Amino acid sequence: MAKIVVALGGNAILSKDASAQAQMKAVKETAKELVNFIKNGDQLIITHGNGPQVGNLLLQQSAADTPENPAMPLDTCGAMTQGSIGYWFQNAMREELLNAGIDKDVMAVVTQTIVAEDDPAFQNPSKPIGPFYTESELDDIKAIHPEWQLIEDAGRGYRRVVPSPKPLEINEYRAIKMIVEAGIVPIVSGGGGIPVVKKGNQLIGTEAVIDKDFSASKIAQLIDADKLIILTSAGGVFYNYGKPDAVELKEVGIDEIQKHIDANEFAKGSMMPKVEAATDFVRNTGNHAVIGALEDVKRIIAGEEGTTIVSEDIAMVAK
C-alpha cells in the first residue's frame, strides 16, 4: 500500500458558480476520480487549495462589516473555508467509497502551518486569492479596496495578492500521521493550512495564504509519503508552454528541471510553485512526484499520463 498525498487546486472545487450547491457538485465529481487511488490499494491523503473560496469569503465579510458584526481576519477566513471544503469532501468521498463497496472512514483536520515571522513574503505579496477581474474593472476595484494589491494572473485576468510565506512545519503532522496509520482518509491543510507564527506556546494567526503545493510537499515529507501528486487543470509540465515549440515532459530528473526553475521558465502564479514543491519533495525523500490533470487520474495511476519528477540517480539510470 503506497501512501500518496494528492494536492488539488481551489479552482477544482469552484467554477464560475460560487454557490455551495455548485461547489459540492464539483467536489463530488472530484471524489469520483480520487476514489480510484483507494481502489488501486493506495492510502490517500487529500490536500486542497482555497484561493477562490477564501477570496470570496473575504468579500462577503467586508460587505457585511459593522461595529456590531466585524469582519473576520484572513487567517480565520482560511479556517472557515478549511471547514466548509473539508465537510464537502468528507461527505463526497464517503459516498463514493460506499458506492464502490469500500467501507473506509474519511476525516477532515483543521490544519495550522507554522511560518517565520520574518519571512520576506510579508514584504512582497504574491499569492492570488479571490475572483478574477478584467482590466476595465481595475479602477472600480481599487477605489473600493485601496489597500489591495492586484496583479495579472497567468493571462486569466487580475486578482488580489496577499503574502505567501513558506511553510516551516505542519503543526498537526503527528496527528495526521496517526490518522493515516489507522487507515482513515484525511483531508488536511486546506488552502495550505492556516498560517501561524510560533511565539512560546502560542500559535498566532497571520494575514497570509500559504501555497497549497508547498504545504502538500511539506506534509508528504513529514508523514513519509511514497508519492506526491499535484493535480492541475493545466495537466503536465511543459517547456515553452503555450508556444509552437512547446514540449510536454513525461519524466524528468530534479537537476534538469531545476535549471528551468532557476531560469524562471514557468508561470509564477500557476506552474512554478507546483514544479518547485514537487522538486523539493523528490530532493528530500528520493521518491517520485507527479504533476498532471485531475481527469487523467486513472492514467496517472497507470503511469501513462502526467509529468513524473524523479531523483537524479533514477534519471541517470533511465538514460
Automatic annotation (TrEMBL):
Residue span(s) of domain Aspartate/glutamate/uridylate kinase: 3-291
Pfam families in the record: AA_kinase (PF00696)
PANTHER family, alphabetized: CARBAMATE KINASE, CARBAMATE KINASE-RELATED
Assigned GO CC terms: cytosol
Keywords assigned: Arginine metabolism, Kinase, Transferase
Coiled-coil residue windows: none
SUPFAM superfamilies: Carbamate kinase-like (SSF53633)
Gene: arcc1
Name of the protein this chain belongs to: Carbamate kinase
